[in-house]
Specification:
The protein is of the alpha/beta class. The strands form six sheets. It has an eight-stranded mixed β-sheet. The protein has a five-stranded mixed barrel with strand order 2-4-5-6-7. Helix 11 (315-325) runs antiparallel to helix 12 (330-345), helix 11 (315-325) packs antiparallel against helix 13 (364-375) and helix 19 (528-538) crosses helix 21.
Length: 802
């Protein structure tokens, strides 16, 4: 900005809407237009001077010079306060009049050239000027007596004024007249003329107020007491329209009353909501508490009180939906069909809460979506993983700042139905902290006898959840608290087999990922061998989540080739190395020969079954037992039990009875970085110890699982389905299992039973002859004595051939 004689160049300029700035007055107003905010920022960075000029039409958003009055006021910025992200409140003091000569810059902020207007000197007789001053003060005094709430400071400033121009500007500034009248006064350079205009304005406003008062008196005299309430309401309505626009608090309250009447809730709920509306009516508009009440009302009214979706269940159609979306999972589908059948016969059935338990990526969440689709109901998902605050479930009390309903009520609100299908995802990942135990809050939600009056802290009224179909998911049922687990029916989803993964990839994943990159099967073709290679060499998981991402990576690389000019791409085994790099997983192959002290065990993990080899080496020493491989406490105890079991059979097995004194036994589980625990490796350890002590190799194509006791009994284990899948995947031909696990063979996949022989054993003595290449050289009669020593009835092993 540059300045010459009474001329200022390139000064930041702000266009005012409905406001006229006078010299020697102070005013504050809000600024929201970006150009105005930018002009303020530029002025603040300089000498804080800004040219304020009123625009002719307040509706013009981006005014040019033709839209602005020719005279404005140069003001000094006193203070700027940010009231929101996109608005400011500014306090300015008028300095002097100035004439707008031209706009120099219009973006990002207005800049203009102006000329300062120096006020004309006061001419005429002094006595006449004094009379004019007194006339103006008297006119303002009469006006102030009629106008309500005139500030005493304003009256004192008028009485103390002794300059015509300053008095005229001050009175015009404090009069509630149209901005074009004020602008006309601002444009007058002669103080006398300006003051005469102000006096005429004061008299006109006084006359208007007198007439208005007379009209009000006549109206009040004509209406009787019965019409008084109507008159007051009409006045309030008009005032609200002037203050708030087309809708004021009265109309807003009427709308809330209408919404409450339309609810299908019981009378207690409606009464409570009406009381909240009555409270809102008594609060000052714009107060924080009024906002809290409005938010509460909006939340309560958005809930589906008594709103139910009619179930449309067709079992044949449901089977087709389940078969189309999910491959395999026959038992799960059968249980879902049973659930749908019950809901068909008894639509208002309560108490059916299902928990789908299985490793990640096996389709638990998608199954719940399919259930909602089969029933024709709305669906909502509640993520419970990591929730450690009870208020996340039950909500916060509305008196707190930022209070909101709990996740359950929010899910019902999202679903828009009081009988929706709600998925409680990862219920085994609920936490607990000083803020409360969320699992305790879930007890009421999942109890059909209690959830008909579920009490959310924010809603502060009972809400009926009894007709909501809750389905939960978990990776490990052992992490779910017992009281919560007791309220749910568990349905286990096991790991996918290699063939199931292939079919899922071929039928669903490839199409999904090709569609995601804008391709189809005509442009990109996956060979069956390539899909098998992706499953075996680039992913290792129970589900298909990582397989899905890997196929997506291949599809993106194919998309790059198509864009580069290739007509089509065929994905086979040969191109996978170039696309994905070195194979991440090498196939687990059996040992090339039978080895001493090396036994194939079977383990269960959260991502499916795994083959866990156990190695034992005996070296001269003092009888120490070394256990390595990140073994847990239970597994270490199994190792000690295995050593004691072998000692009790040392003579029969042809082993030196003093081996526990003269030899150090080292038991190691490979992949030492992976923690391992559980009792099911007991028989594996016994077999490996016997092999190491006798020097007899263990057959390389057998695997085993079972807990061992001191007396040599083989106890039942869990996870047989996953363990058997691991044996099949690794080429095992024979698997030894506890005889008590024979009923669990019904859960084992058909393809596994067709390729693997399961041998059920009751004691370790049934297993050793089958697992070792040969039995130790001991007398036959001594070998029989072992049963008498251990107190166990001899029973032959049971082999199941398929």
């Amino acid at each position: 900005m540059s300045q010459g004689f009474d001329r200022i160049y390139d000064i930041p300029t702000m266009a005012l809407r409905g406001i006229v700035m006078f010299p020697n007055t102070v005013i504050h107003f809000d600024v929201v237009r970006k150009k105005s905010i930018e002009a303020l920022n530029i002025a603040m960075a300089g000498n804080r001077r800004i040219f304020l000029v009123t625009q002719r039409d307040i509706a013009v958003e981006d005014p040019n010079i033709d839209d602005l009055y020719p005279v404005g006021c140069v003001a000094k910025i006193r203070q700027i306060v940010r009231i929101s992200d996109d608005s400011l409140r500014v306090l300015v003091e008028g300095c002097y009049r100035a004439e707008l000569m031209g706009i120099t810059v219009s973006s990002p902020a207005l800049h203009s050239n102006i000329v300062r207007i120096n006020e004309d000197p006061v001419k005429g007789k002094e006595i006449y000027n004094e009379a004019l001053l007194r006339s103006a003060k008297n006119a303002f005094d009469e006006y102030a007596r009629i106008v309500p709430k005139m500030s005493p400071d304003v009256l004192m400033s008028v009485v103390a004024a002794d300059e015509m121009g300053q008095l005229a500007d001050f009175i015009a500034h404090n009069m509630p007249v149209d901005y074009d009248d004020k602008q006309y006064i601002l444009e007058q350079n002669d103080p006398k003329k300006r003051l005469k205009l102000v006096i005429s304005l004061l008299k006109r406003e006084k006359d208007i107020l007198d007439i208005d008062a007379k009209i009000n008196e006549k109206v009040k005299a004509n209406i009787d007491e019965n019409q008084r309430e109507y008159y007051l309401r009409e006045q309030i309505k008009v005032i609200n329209e002037e203050l708030y626009g087309s809708e004021g608090p009265e109309e807003e309250s009427d709308k809330y009353y209408a919404k409450i009447d339309a609810l299908k809730a019981n009378d207690e709920v409606k009464k409570r909501l009406r009381e909240e509306v009555d409270r809102y009516m008594k609060m000052p508009n714009g107060s924080h508490e009024a906002t809290v009440v409005l938010n509460y009302l909006d939340t309560c009214l958005s809930l589906p009180w008594g709103v139910y979706t009619e179930s449309k269940i067709n079992l044949d159609k449901s089977r087709k939906i389940l078969d189309k979306v999910h491959y395999g999972l026959e038992k799960v589908k059968e249980r879902i069909i049973e659930l749908l059948a019950v809901h068909t016969l008894v639509p208002e059935v309560k108490g059916q809460i299902i928990c789908l338990v299985g490793p990640p990526g096996v389709g638990k969440t998608s199954i719940v979506k399919s259930v909602a689709e089969c029933m024709g109901r709305s669906y909502a998902r509640v993520a419970l993983g990591g929730v450690g605050d009870e208020s996340e479930i039950r909500g916060h009390r509305k008196t707190y700042i930022g209070a909101m309903p709990g996740r359950i009520i929010n899910a019902v609100k999202t679903a828009g139905s009081a009988n929706a299908v709600i998925l409680l995802d990862e219920i085994d990942k609920l936490g607990s902290s000083y803020k409360g135990d969320p699992s305790a809050a879930m007890l009421e939600i999942l109890d059909s006898e209690q959830n008909s009056t579920f009490f959310d802290h924010y809603i502060d009224m009972p809400f009926d959840l009894s007709r909501v179909l809750f389905i939960t998911t978990a990776n490990d049922a052992g992490n779910i608290p017992a009281p919560l687990l007791d309220r749910m029916e568990l349905i286990e989803l096991g790991s996918y087999t290699r063939e199931e993964k292939f079919q899922i990839a071929k039928r669903h994943l490839v199409k999904k990922q090709l569609s995601a990159v804008g391709l189809d099967s005509k442009k990109v073709k996956f060979s069956d061998d390539a899909l098998y290679k992706l499953i075996d060499a680039y992913t290792r998981e129970a589900g298909v989540r990582r397989l899905d991402r890997t196929i997506g990576s291949v599809c993106r690389k194919c998309a790059a080739k198509i864009v580069s000019g290739e007509d089509s791409v065929k994905v086979n085994v040969g191109v996978l190395h170039d696309m994905l790099g070195t194979e991440k997983y090498k196939p687990d192959t059996l040992q090339k020969k039978d080895e001493v002290g090396l036994v194939n065990g079977l383990a269960w993990t959260s991502v499916g079954g795994e083959m866990l080899q156990m190695e034992v080496v005996c070296v001269p020493g003092t009888g120490k037992l070394e256990l390595t491989g990140s073994l847990g406490d239970v597994m270490k105890e199994s190792a000690h039990a295995a050593v004691t079991c072998v000692r009790s059979r040392a003579e029969v097995l042809g082993i030196d009875k003093e081996f526990y004194k003269n030899l150090d036994i080292h038991i190691h589980a490979p992949e030492a970085a992976v923690p391992k625990d559980g009792p099911s490796a007991g028989v594996t350890m016994v077999t490996a110890i016997v092999s190491a002590l006798t020097g007899i190799p263990v057959k390389r194509d057998v695997a085993m699982t079972g807990e061992i006791t001191l007396r040599g009994r083989v106890m039942p284990i869990g996870g047989l389905k996953e363990k058997s899948m691991a044996a099949y995947r690794n080429g095992i031909k024979r698997v030894f299992i506890p005889i008590a696990n024979l009923p669990n063979l019904d859960e084992v996949d058909k393809v596994v039973k067709e390729n693997v022989e399961f041998v059920a054993v009751e004691t370790i003595d049934d297993l050793l002859p089958e697992a070792l290449v040969s039995m130790p050289s001991a007398k036959k009669e001594d070998r029989k004595d072992i049963y008498a020593v251990s107190g166990i009835n001899k029973s032959k092993s049971t082999a199941i051939h398929n």
